[in-house]
């Protein structure tokens, strides 16, 4: 059976000797904060603010991730809790856009080796397969004054 695409709830787990389900009540988007806190050895608090923009989640080498639009850091995320806040720069909570059918996207990748499983939302401006968009439309022919 092929490996499933990794989500926050299976990536960010408590360190031993804690029980595997010690963080079961923590929402998926907040697991990175709990995990980060245990690794860094100091208290970190997720931001209280929500930013107005939304970002696209993508699959990078078999993991659902979100990139911070402020500092460029990234974290593993989950369609079960579609939001992200950066542990590096404390960029506020951002809504994440996942595909309408997450299961179908993940299933389409199962024939690939995990390290080759990459996917971008078709509307994501960072999608390398998306045609470039001209930022300035052609004004047409110039008129003489």
Fold and architecture overview:
- With 145 residues, the protein is α+β, with helices and mostly antiparallel strands.
- The protein has 3 helices and 6 strands.
- A 3-stranded mixed sheet has the order 1-6-5, with no helix packed on it. A 3-stranded antiparallel sheet has the order 2-3-4, with no helix packed on it.
- Strand 5 and strand 6 form a beta hairpin.
- It is globular, with a radius of gyration of 19 Å.
- The chain starts with 7 loop residues before the first helix and ends in a 36-residue tail after the last helix.
Q: Biggest β-sheet, characterized?
A: 3 strands, mixed
Structural class: alpha+beta
**Which segments are poorly predicted (pLDDT under 50) over 5 or more consecutive residues?**
none
Average pLDDT reading: 91
Helical amount among residues, as a percent range? 10-25%
Number of continuous helical runs: 3
Strand content: 15-25%
N- to C-terminal distance: 71 Å
By DSSP, the count of extended strands is 6
Query: Assembly type of the shown chains?
Result: single chain
Shape call? globular
What order do the helices and strands come in, and which of them pair?
Blueprint: H1 8-11, H2 31-40, E1 50-56, E2 58-60, E3 63-67, E4 74-76, E5 83-84, E6 93-97, H3 102-109
Summarize the structure.
With 145 residues, the chain is an alpha+beta fold.
Task: Note the main attributes of this structure.
3-stranded mixed beta sheet, globular, 3 helices, alpha+beta, 3-stranded antiparallel beta sheet, 6 strands, 15% helix, 145 residues
């Amino acid at each position: 059976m092929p490996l499933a695409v990794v989500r926050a709830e299976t990536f960010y787990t408590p360190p031993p000797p804690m029980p595997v389900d010690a963080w079961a009540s923590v929402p998926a988007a907040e697991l990175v904060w709990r995990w980060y806190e245990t690794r860094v050895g100091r208290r970190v608090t997720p931001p209280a603010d929500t930013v107005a923009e939304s970002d696209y989640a993508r699959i990078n080498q078999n993991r659902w991730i979100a990139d911070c639009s402020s500092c460029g850091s990234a974290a593993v995320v989950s369609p079960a809790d579609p939001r992200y806040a950066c542990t590096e720069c404390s960029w506020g909570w951002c809504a994440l856009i996942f595909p309408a059918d997450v299961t179908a996207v993940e299933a389409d990748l199962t024939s690939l080796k995990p390290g080759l499983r990459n996917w971008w939302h078709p509307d994501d401006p960072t999608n390398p397969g998306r045609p470039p968009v001209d930022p300035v439309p052609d004004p047409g022919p110039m008129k003489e004054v």
